[in-house]
Amino acid sequence: MRCTHCGNIIYPRINPAVIVGVLHDGKILVTKYARNAEVPYYALIAGFTEIGETLEETVKREVMEETGLHVKNIRYYKSQPWGSAADILAGFYCDLDGSPEIHMDRQELSRALWASPADVILQPDDWSLTNEMMQRFKEGKPC
After folding, report:
1. Cα angle: 72, vertex 78, 82; to 5 degrees
2. Given the DSSP bridges, would you call strands 109-115 and 27-33 parallel, antiparallel or unpaired?
3. C-alpha to C-alpha distance for 119 and 23, rounded to whole angstroms
4. Running DSSP on this structure, what letter comes out for residue 131?
5. Contact, 29 vs 103, CB < 8 A?
6. Hey, which residues does 76 pair with through a beta bridge?
């Protein structure tokens, strides 16, 4: 925005966040947030980038913090502005690196599991990046 009186330009503050589809043996890691445990559909790992952190570092940290899993082969999918907040979401797919045993952060999540394409329950909307990424997986499209 530009001030009409002095010409000062103010740029919006944008909060970067990641959405992560972790893949292993033909399955994807799906979760339910602790605060929305009653909803029938799943989400992917997500979280905000910390100051001085790359998006790829955010992917590794968020997956580790929420599930105790390590990841590799991180690849960017696409981004989405989040209109209801000052967020920009960056979607990534990655592969499991090591044991598939989930050690869930129960403060953050109520459920985390490996789901085959047939077991993925999509969200009721079709506009979220999370839902799009899960739908791609469900339809067997490249991740």
Report:
1. 115
2. antiparallel
3. 14
4. H
5. no
6. 92
Residues 6 or more apart whose CB falls under 8 angstroms from that of 52 comprise none
E strand intervals along the chain: 15-24, 27-33, 45-48, 71-82, 87-96, 109-115
pLDDT at 83: 65
Q: Tens digit of pLDDT for each residue in 47-65? A: 999 999 999 999 999 999 9
Beta partners for 27? 24
b/e 65-74 (16+ beta carbons within 10 angstroms → b): ebbebebeeb
To the nearest 10°, report the CA torsion of 55, 114, 95, 127: -50
Of 27-31, 80-84, 137-141, the poorest mean pLDDT is in: 80-84
The average confidence (pLDDT) of the chain is 92
